[in-house]
Design a protein that fits this description.
The complex is a heterodimer of chains A (344) and B (528). Chain A has 344 residues and is mostly helical. Chain A has helices at residues 2-6, 10-43, 51-76, 84-100, 118-143, 148-166, 177-184, 192-210, 212-222, 224-229, 234-260, 271-281, 293-312, 317-343, and strands at 172-173, 186-187, 190-191, 262-263. Residues 1-12 and 104-113 of chain A have low confidence and may be disordered. Chain B has helices spanning 44-51, 74-79, 97-101, 120-133, 149-162, 179-194, 206-212, 235-243, 307-314, 337-342, 352-356, 363-368, 384-397, 414-426, 444-459, 471-477, 500-508, 514-527; strands at residues 6-15, 18-28, 33-37, 59-64, 67-68, 82-85, 167-171, 198-202, 215-220, 223-229, 263-272, 284-292, 296-300, 322-327, 330-331, 345-348, 376-377, 381-382, 432-436, 463-467, 480-485, 488-494. Chain B starts with 5 loop residues before the first strand and ends with a helix. The chains are: A mainly alpha (344), B alpha/beta (528).
Amino acid sequence: MSEAVSDKPSAQTRSVRSRIIPLLSRYAPVVCLVLLIVIFTLLTDGRFLKPLNLFNVMRQISIEGLIAVGMTFVILTAGIDLSVGSLVAVAGLTAALIAKGSAASSFSLSESEATGYGWFAAMLGAMAVGVLGGAIQGTAITKLKVPPFVVTLGGLSIFRGMALMISGSGPISGFDDAYRWWGQGRIGPVPVPVIIFLAIAAVAFVVLRYTRYGRQVYAVGGNREAARLAGVNVERVLLSVYVIIGFLAGLAGFVLSARLNSSEAVAGIGYELNVIAAVVIGGTSLFGGVGTIFGTVIGSILIGVLINGLVLMNVNPYVQQITIGLILVAVVAFDQFAKSRRLK
Amino acid sequence: MTEPLLRMEHITKRFPGVLALDDVSLEILPGETHGLLGENGAGKSTLLKILSGAYQPDAGSITLGGQPLQLKTPLDAQKLGIVTIYQEFNLIPTMTVAENMFLGREPGPLGKRMGSFVSWPRMREETEKVLRHLDLDLDPMMPVSDLSVGEQQMVEIARALSRESRIIVMDEPTAALTEREVEGLFRIVTDLKARGLSIIYVTHRLHEVEQICDRVTVLRDGKRVGGGNVGELKIDDFVKMMVGRSSTQLFTRLGGHRTTGPVVMKAQGISRDRDPTNPHATLLKDVSIEVRAGEILGLAGLMGAGRTELARAIFGADPFERGSIEIDGKPLILRSPVDAIRNGIGLVPEDRKQQALFLDLAVRHNLAISSLKDLTWGRWFVSDRAETALVERFRKSLDIRMASADIQIADLSGGNQQKVVLARWLALKPKVLIVDEPTRGIDIAAKAEVHQQLDMMARAGIAIVAISSELPEVMAISDRIVTMREGRVTGSMPGDRATEESLMHLMAIEQNAPRDAMAAAIAGERRI
């Protein structure tokens, strides 16, 4: 492309370039994803493209993907939530305790001994814990005016500590079939967590794109003062995004425990990194106001593909982490660059 | 006559669409205090920015002590001893007085040889020396944030002195000071003068000019329009020079045949006290205004008069300590803009980009953000069709020129952006619309269009409060003009009888009492 325009007058080059940059920043994640898929397919002799492997990728990303959908709301308002991993653990343990009926029966591995309240109560409990955690953090952010970074860094520590207290005596394992179905089941060939992820993403897409509330999220993130002066209830919008991500972290905690057939206090460690990376790689700006759910889905898949491809190629697992970190910084650097061009 | 210390000759500076300075010359004598006067936008700031190296002139020359200068950066100016003390201080509040004093040139333990290290004892010693010099009783190790505004100002001056300045530029130095602090400042200015330093003193307070300045230069619309020795000129003369006749911005008066209805909005005794966390904020002192249906009330005043603060208080954007606001005779409780909007008050804020626009979002989203409630189906969902209809209606009625409603608002011209903001409020059918500098930064043709829109809104029965720093604009659109000065209402007169001169009197000169001010204004009119 650059060769094609290099022989034209410089003014025109600039205008072409000024059109390409926003275009690139919009479709960069998709282009990257396609490239990665092509590369891994070639390097693994087509093993990567086998349907089984593709569903594997999707199942792997679905739990963090759920949280990434919530994180998109938060980052759109120029906020951040670092506590999601810890909240997943608390929610998973809550679900397990409800499913088992009590802490006492939690060691019984056989289903017949369990006297719990069933998966539905467990799922509701996990979501309720998530909503409560998010509401408390959101209140601290809006009413006490503590920056989101600090509040949720505190939350990261507090919720992890609570998870360790709840599960003092170790993991809670062994759920009934109906419970496990939410993590291990399939509808046709499609794993249930993948369906949950895509369904939630679809709802979130509609909310952000077609509702009054969605408009207000973008407005608050794009220019908080202007939103306030335009009559948007800024505090309520900010509180709500932390409730949403809390709800989704709770749901993710439940699905994770169902998939692993076990809830433990160390579940979800490091989720915040991958989740934030997925959202940012998907084109959502950390400065707020710019981003889409579609981008987040692509960003999540991109990270999943990257990890899966590297595993298939037997690359040292630590390299995965290094690669994700590098991509994250590169994407934000590009975002900054595009922004500085726009302001000129 | 003594040889001038500083000569700025034939300075011209052009910005896109504006000639900010047109062949302006300024001479500063050694040891004089030179007042620089002019309305908002007269070119004072631009001239000072050129002197401080922040802007480059398009034409003209600067000589200091006979030597021609090339000021490429603010650092160049500082090295030559030209120091500017801005209205908003450049101190770092978390650092101590001594650290601020030597920021960027901290003394090392062994003179210049260990330049990377800082000698705290030396820094402290030298700071004490300078403070003593100024008769200031301040602890060099105290963080600047613990100082009063007046003390901070003194630290700025002390810093300027420690740099061996030859010319100190003070931009509105008394704006945030108490009376006692002003006295202290004047003592120091007199003292500096005695030591042979020259001071350029920018102010809106004309009586201060009489007290402290030796000579003045007056700018208007980017041109030097007069000046001379203070003893020979009176405040009236300054006022005449400042307003004059501005040839470029004559607007046709539109108010002619509007009929006004009952009082819609009444603000009484609005007072906003000093906020320790934001000492530079303009205060409001017992401000009362009322506006009628179909009336355009102009609010005139210089920078820091409290017009914007009043607007934001009425809109619920800033809290105020005392006073009440009524709409249609019913008192309002204003906790936030949401309350104001619910009661039919709208505000077009003064800074379009920072306070009104969502630059990343499409035109349609910018326009509809406040009226989404009326555009929904099933309570939650925004109806594309209703939104498009709304945007289309205002595109036609306000003549908003855009390629499509889906492009980012950042891509529209300033005038069209402003029309979108106006449309945002019109869509809500407000009872009262406050417009703060509605034509700032838009071209002359677009200004006239905005004036027409305001006229049409008034004719439709909306009560409009219009704030503008351009007197010809205020005079062209207002049925009635209220002047403010330093947080107080100083006068009120019908728009068709106001003159720039009578308004400037009320805006700039200390009056004994508002009643006298009005009498003076009316008398002033009669003379003309």
